[in-house]
Design a protein that fits this description.
alpha+beta; five-stranded mixed β-sheet; 5 strands
């Protein structure tokens, strides 16, 4: 696997609610449509999760093949810019793939 290569995966959940997908464009989220089975290659892909109680939060999942020395600054930037604009809670998950 090459550095920054997209990793296809299936995500299955038994919870109810809705998920909308966004990419970070400057300091705002731009909604994108992702169809089932579509390969996603965006960097900075986010999922806005709206649960059955209408509570909204943002989940950011990123796959890395190496440890970028300034990654924590990028994650902090995402957190501050998105909270400032949208007031959503934001969770980051970074998965290192060797």
């Amino acid at each position: 696997m090459k550095d920054n290569e997209a990793v296809p995966m299936s995500i299955i959940s038994g919870d109810s609610g809705q998920v909308k997908y966004f990419k970070l464009n400057g300091d705002y989220l731009e909604e994108i449509n992702i169809k089932a089975g579509e390969e996603v290659t965006y960097k900075g892909l986010f999922a806005k999760i709206i649960d059955e109680n209408e509570k909204e939060s943002i989940l950011h999942i990123e796959f890395q093949t190496s440890n970028h020395k300034e990654m924590h600054f990028r994650m902090l930037r995402y957190l501050t810019e998105l909270y400032k604009k949208y007031k959503y809670s934001l969770s980051h998950t970074i998965l290192f793939i060797c």
